[in-house]
Every structure is written in C-alpha cells, then in structure tokens.
Amino acid sequence: MLTPREVLPGAYQITLPLPFELSSVNVYLIPLETGFLLVDCGLGTAESLASLETQLAQLGVSWSQIREIFLTHTHPDHVGQAPRLLALTGAKISMHSDEKEQLARIARGPANQPAWLDEALRRAGVPRALVEGIEAAFARIKPNFPDLEPDRVWRGGEILETSLGELELIPTPGHSPGHLCLYSKQHRTLFCGDHMLKEITPNIGWLDGRDALGEFLASLERVAELEVDTLLPGHGEPFHGSQAWIAATKTHHQNRCEVILGALEAGPLTAHELVGAVWPQPLAPFHHRFAVFEVLAHLEHLRKCGRVVELPQPSHSLWSL
Ligand SMILES: [Zn+2]
Ligand SMILES: [Zn+2]
How far is the CA of 66 from the centre of ligand 1 (A)? Predict the structure, then answer.
C-alpha cells in the first residue's frame, strides 16, 4: 500500500497509481498558513482518487483543507483528476499561461483526430495505419485533458507564500510548453515536476513553431544556477545530484542529435524513418507518437543550429544534412 512520505517539514510526497508502464505519479501536499497547497493531481481514475483519499486520511487532511492546486504542467497524469478534485475541495487552481492555452486547444479539439496531431504525423511521414493506432490511443487518454478555466495563470518568476517559506516559480519549458518548477531557496529543494526525473530522461514534446529541445536545454541551465540539494520529481523517488544529472542529460541529447545526423549521412529521411534509427525495436502506437515528437524536437533544434534542413514534399517532409 502506498503511504505519504514527509519530504520537508509538514510537506508530503503522495504517490498515486498509473495504469501505464510508468506505474505512478507523485503529487505533493505543502502546508499553507491555512490549509494546504496540492502540487499536481494525478490521472483521472477511480484507483488514483481512492489512493489519494486514503493517503490524505492517513495524514488527517480532509478535502476541504486543500485550498490551492498548482499544476507543474498539464499532461494527463498531472491534470486528469483536476475537475474531480476541484469539486471535492473547492480549491483554486493555477497553471502557466502556455499550459492553459495548450490544454484548452486539446480539450476543445475533436475527440479522436486533433488536426495538429494529424498534420504533424502526416508531415513526419508516419504511415496511415500507424496514425490511426496513435489517434486511437490519443482518444483513450483525451478525457484526461479537461477543459479547465484556471483561477490564476503564471508567467514564471512569481512567489508562492507557504509555511515552508517562499517558493519561487521557475519557468522550465521543454517537456511541455509552460512547465514550472517550485524552488525553495531556504530548503535548497526543487519540486521539479517532469523537468527532471531520477533515472528517466524526460520526453521532449515537439511544439509547433518552438525549439522545444533548445528551450529544455536552456531550462536545465536555469536550474543549474540554483542551489539545489534535493529534487522532488513528478515520478519516482526524491533524488540528489542536480548538477551531475543536468550534465548527463545534456550529453544524452547531444548523443541523440549525433545519431540523427549520422543516419542522415546516407541521404534524406522522414522523422518517422529516423525513429527507426534512434529506437531500433518497434514501438507500440502510444510510444511511437512520443518517439516521433522526440525526433521532431531534435530535428527542429538541429535546424535552428543550422545542421539540417527540411525538404517539404507534397505528402510529407524529408530532412537532410
Ligand atoms: Zn509530463
Ligand atoms: Zn508525468
């Protein structure tokens, strides 16, 4: 059974189940002068809600004591349960303005064939049958992109007053367009969402018109300037060694760029073909989408750096040195 873990005085990591390969997500309960702030919500499943209710009861915390909900970002495993929790707690919810926009775009889009996803996959050269598999997987997760109107939107740099002292909102785009970390200078601790995960390289989501990988690398530099002893991630155990993690992750993405450049030496390829070069084993549709977007994020970054060019074709795009 999952039990809350005290991570700072009066602040708890609460681990909730996920029905995926990545089998859990962490939310955090932070004491306020009156009541609590909840960082992230978990996926919108009955199992997740029951687990949160049980763990709050173990802490003697009732739903109505949760006064604020803060989202690090709006991926389904972090925002899916939000509507239910808002109804149970009456709390106010906040997120970055870019997350608000992305969430609204997905939540208000068609159920199974979001135009941007369809267009991105077509341009990436993903075969039609696989696009259908990806869109079916997307339709299953879609209810976990709720149409939320936040009470407050952030730009980054703001301060939250809590019983732990001040928490600074550190903008860390890359994994998602408006990802935010919460930094306690006093406790040398970073609530890092999915920006940094122990033993997992966060997925970099390609974003139309943005250099997501470049933004992610800049976000790592921003965190490297902070004095951090403890990282409290959105998945997995708390960990240490922020600087070493940042160095290793930068190397990982440099290596991935080299693999892509190496594959293009033989001639132009689509992003879909490049997925095969980076991940030689076939991927399930759900994972293939993340793989295509990860490759696209690297290609976009390499394009910005002047290392590759996109060659638009009538039905797809080729990438070339
Ligand atoms: Zn995420
Ligand atoms: Zn996550």
Answer: 23
Nearest ligand atom owner, CA of 179:
1
Block residue for tokens 């009156």: 34
**Range 137-143 average pLDDT:** 89
Q: Answer yes or no: is 318 within a domain.
A: no
Q: How many domains does the chain divide into? A: 1
The model scores a pTM over 0.85: yes
Take residue 116 and report the two structure tokens written for it.
Answer: 């941007």
- Structural domain boundaries, residue 11: 5-309
Q: Are 28 and 10 in contact (CB under 8 A)?
A: no
Q: Tell me the CA–centroid distance for residue 194 and ligand 1, in Å.
A: 5
**Buried (b) or exposed (e) across 159-198, using 16+ Cβ within 10 A?**
ebebebeebbbbbbbbbbbbbbbbbbeebebbbbbbbbbe
Confirm whether 319 is domain-assigned.
no
113 has pLDDT over 80: no
Residue 76 belongs to domain with CATH number: 3.60.15.10
* Separation in Å, CA 97 to CA 148, 172, 205: 12, 13, 17
Cα(144) to centroid of ligand 2, in Å? 12
Cβ pair 263, 277 in contact under 8 A: yes
Task: Note the pLDDT of residue 116.
Answer: 75
